[in-house]
Amino acid sequence: MKIINTNDANFKQEFENILARAKTDIKEVSSIVTSIIDEIVEDGNEALKKHIEKFDKWEVKSDEELQISKDDMKKAYENIDEKLKEALHIAYDRIKTYHEKQLPKSWIDFEKNGTILGQKVTPVDRAGLYIPGGKAAYPSSLLMNAIPAIVAGVEEIVVCTPTPNNEVNELLLAACYICGIEKAFKVGGASAVAAMAYGTETIPKVDVITGPGNIFVATAKKLVFGEVHIDMIAGPSEIGILADSTAKPKYLAIDLLSQAEHDEMASSIMITIDEEVAKQTSIEVENYLQTLSREEIARKSIEDRGAIIVASSMDEAIELMNEIAPEHLEVMTANSFELLPKIKHAGAIFLGENTPEPIGDYIAGPNHTLPTGSTAKFYSPLNVENFLKKSSIINFSKQAIDELGEACALLADTEGLTAHAKSVRVRLEDK
């Protein structure tokens, strides 16, 4: 694994390359995705069937075939191994408990002059969840997207997932059953995003679309934003690790690879203040690579988008990591909690050697749908509020408008909005 030092003459350029890790040119696929969206808007289910035959390689003979039956979900749940079933329920309960703590409350405030101000929090009516199913199926993503919507109180949840060769992952079906999903469809890619955004004869139009996907899914979400709300534009998975001399190279190496095995485009970056830890970790990465079932994918990711940076101090290391703003950040140091106040930008922060990133993917409780490609500087993890909206509440008494009305009318005058000003003054004149 490539090791670079902040004192190297070419470090600035090397670091710029790391920061550009997720700069995929959406323009390259925008025209393709726009055509797909236009076809769905114009032809609905017929376009979906054509896209499924082209991309997922099976023929949809009727509209009913697009939907995954609740009986299939139940059957899959009943047939999975009991220990696996228990693990799914543990994950469900922990994710639900964590997200219940995120629920914002409606509130009302009363002022002395009779003014009543407040905020009303309401769930969206219908949420659309995109669950990947291409190179691998991710039942955990179903839990992570469905549970916040359930906690928020969303009445109707719609799931879309690609089904290559008309095969649905049994564990994904079981997860749908646990979450009580009523509507799930065998539709993937940009077609699924378009169908949920605009609706077809079979798939209802939703209010918000969440969930990760490839460049076509991400581009489609970007293009339909405004027609519906979205969670974020997520790119390939990534991990950043801060390490000092106390960190165990074998832990560091396998944690770097835990993201590299996702995708050739995944990014694994470690910054350490100990050169020996850097060298040993690089050796361990090679040792572990040879044992992985997805070695080819992980190796390409590590070779093309992986790096170990040796920094001169922990402050410098943190400064660099804040600039990277990784999706997942592990802090493998002797004093991980002491560093927490200095960490500004990361999707999820994993503190201590016993908190590997996969714990967050499956069982810890916080959401694993996270901002990537430095967007943690302004995006948050998927959460309950992605499925909620807020309405302001305003009620003025006669005393309140008498006290504040002229100031309001004056501001309206300044902006040249005569009706605005008169709307207030007509009430002031009415004694």
Automatic annotation (TrEMBL):
Binds 1 zinc ion per subunit. The active site is at E327 (proton acceptor), H328 (proton acceptor). GO terms for molecular function: histidinol dehydrogenase activity; NAD binding; zinc ion binding. Substrate binds at S237, Q259, H262, H328, D361, E415, H420. Pfam families: Histidinol_dh (PF00815). Its EC number is 1.1.1.23. The keyword Zinc applies. The keyword DNA-binding does not apply. Catalyzes the sequential NAD-dependent oxidations of L-histidinol to L-histidinaldehyde and then to L-histidine. HAMAP family: HisD. Belongs to the histidinol dehydrogenase family. This is Histidinol dehydrogenase. It comes from Halarcobacter mediterraneus.
